[in-house]
Specification:
16% strand
Length: 373
Amino acid sequence: MEKLLFRKLITDISLRALIITFTLGAIVWIVQAVNHLDFVIDDGHNFRIYFYYNLFNFPKIVHRILPFVLFISIFFELIKYEKNNELMIFWINGISKKNFILNLAKFSLILMLVQIIIGSIISPSSQFKSRLFLKESNMDFLPNLIKPGKFIDTISGLTIFINEKTKENSYKNIYIQEGNLFELDRNNQIIFAKEGFLVDNEKKVFRLLNGRIISTNNKKLISFQFDKVDYDLSKFSSKTITVPKIQELSSLKIIKCSFNLMTNNSYQDEMFDCNIERLKNLNNELYKRLIKPLYIPLLTLICCFLIIFSKEQNNYTLKTIKVFLSVFLILVISETLMRYVDNSLAYLVLLMFIPVIFYIIGYILLIKKVRYG
């Protein structure tokens, strides 16, 4: 009977958490998706890349909101159980309040592990994949980016100006600048053409008619006219950042880099530059992935203070509000401490022990309340 009761409680908490996670997560995801529309409007990626990029960022959102969602789910399920006299069923069947707390504590440890897995493995991996979509994509929306009377510099190393658009993918009075002509030691060029049109949307070939090319080669200026030339745009890429950010790196790489920097050792990685200037950001990321989840058991423990109150008490609502504010305060503390992460290994270890110390103190107080309340 005890297993059935706890199974129902855990199921109710989990279902509420899933509903809130996907509802709240969908709202945040839509807001972020709208903010990322510049990938299509300004950077020339197609909607398929845009969709995949946002889709693979969803685990990051889940990781961010999960502690708050779990706190809300456990808090309101315990209140619901008390109001429906379902907690009384536990006590009638001989389940002690201490045993009740221990079972929820075990459940919170599972939730903590899930949060660590999402934050240290799933979320970085999915964000890295979303970055790869940008890196491997070409300028699928380039025809839409080319607008009359507007300089287009979205493509790295290339500037295009169109004076007039005659029909679909057909233009007049075209100016193309590749590189910077003031850097004479590099191969740069400017192209003027009276007419031009895109002959292949997949390969991005721009066919130019009746124009002139001015280029630099070995610090010499070369100029010649042409009747027709095919200019290949596929060799250029978007200015969208394709180098992995810290939150997209694997946890193992971050740990190795951070530990070596804090112990004055060198560490080289082909994916990112491991230097002392990035140490604080690396430790911040470690805090988010490995230390913040340690607060989940503490949040669950504080919610368990609800079982020592009865709905028959006159000040029951006030006591539940106090519990709610206490849990919310812990969430604020967990977020605030992240701002004080520095380059010290000892300080990082101290931050790791803070939720553990709070948990021990809270557990002792709760057991005393249960025993003598």
